[in-house]
Design goal:
Blueprint (H helix, E strand, L loop, with lengths): L1 E2 L19 E7 L2 E3 L2 E5 L3 E6 L30 E5 L4 E6 L8 E7 L5 E10 L2 E10 L3 E9 L6 E7 L6 E7 L5 E10 L4 E3 L3 E4 L8 E5 L8 E6 L3 E9 L4 E9 L2 E6 L9 E9 L5 E8 L1
């Protein structure tokens, strides 16, 4: 069930009608797609790699009739790789057939951006991430909004920057705080208030953590949630979930590795609505990390 974060978001060179295709990698493992939500541009490629379990990718029109076109990796199996080039703008849903609806994802394909972007980058130095993007053309653009997320799903605005209406370089220095991974993207608004998003850039914090931390996402949750544990060093422990009465409803042992440890709780859609406590126990020194989470 334990899963390392394999997400690799690639550098992109140009966007627009002459855009160079970008490949986005999705890891298939532990009853989840990681990342499960992508925003890409027309002509980009998504590659799914199954590294554990028997799964498939089904975005066919039978399962998702509103998809602009259908796609599928074929029959359920293990150890496969599947790639799809998205040429039609729109929103696509997909699922793993034997594990739906909990194991599902979505891809939003932007049409040509109303801008010619030359490059975008995210460089970290001592916990500060410099996000920089360069334009070759932006006459019809009114505003850039830098956004960030810790789960690649829920983004919040960091700063608004007015467009210069000429080829320009923009940058912002963002404090990553205690987060080991932060996802950045730029929201682009044109003069007609149409909005597009750049691909997501992943930044890894270079500040070494000094204590173990526990994060639960999303919170509150509806049908699933994830557990993120930052470990100062490797240790043996367990994850336990308690209901409001103190009854243990989930318990599993894990070997935590130094750095980021990521877990998906199976069958959390079967939990009744209410409050829960998630506890992570280090059996070596008896340390316990705990946090509350709400099922809606």
């Amino acid at each position: 069930m334990r899963m390392r974060n394999y997400l690799q978001i690639l550098f992109f060179i140009a966007l627009g009608f002459s855009a160079k295709a970008i490949t986005y990698n999705v890891t298939v493992q532990n009853f989840s797609f990681t990342p499960s939500v992508l925003v890409i541009n027309q002509g980009d490629v998504v590659t799914w790699t199954n590294v554990g379990g028997f799964h498939n990718v089904n975005g066919g029109l039978g399962a998702f009739p509103l998809n602009p076109e259908g796609f599928t990796s074929g029959a359920v199996g293990a150890g496969w790789t599947f790639s799809k080039t998205f040429t039609i703008p729109g929103t696509y849903g997909y699922q793993c057939d034997p594990h739906a609806p909990n194991m599902a994802g979505s891809i939003t394909v932007n049409g040509p951006l109303p801008i010619e972007l030359k490059s975008i980058s995210a460089v970290v130095n001592e916990g500060i991430c410099k996000v920089e993007w360069k334009t070759d053309k932006e006459e019809s653009i009114s505003m850039f909004t830098l956004q960030k997320s810790t789960n690649a799903l829920d983004f919040k605005d960091v700063v608004d920057i007015n467009a210069n209406h000429m080829p320009s370089t923009y940058s912002y220095m963002d404090d990553m705080g205690a987060d080991q991974y932060v996802y950045y993207r730029v929201k682009i608004r044109d003069d007609n208030n149409a909005i597009k998003y750049t691909p997501i850039r992943l930044a890894q914090n270079d500040v070494k953590i000094t204590k173990n931390t526990l994060t639960l996402l999303p919170n509150p949750f509806v049908d699933h949630f994830h557990i993120s544990v930052q470990a100062v060093k490797s240790w043996v422990g367990a994850i336990m979930v308690y209901d409001i009465t103190g009854r243990v409803i989930y318990s599993e042992k894990y070997n935590f590795e130094e750095g980021h440890n990521y877990f998906h709780i199976e069958n959390s859609d079967q939990f009744p609505k209410g409050h829960y406590i998630v506890a992570v126990r280090n059996t070596n020194n008896k340390e316990v990390l705990s946090a509350s989470i709400i099922k809606q």
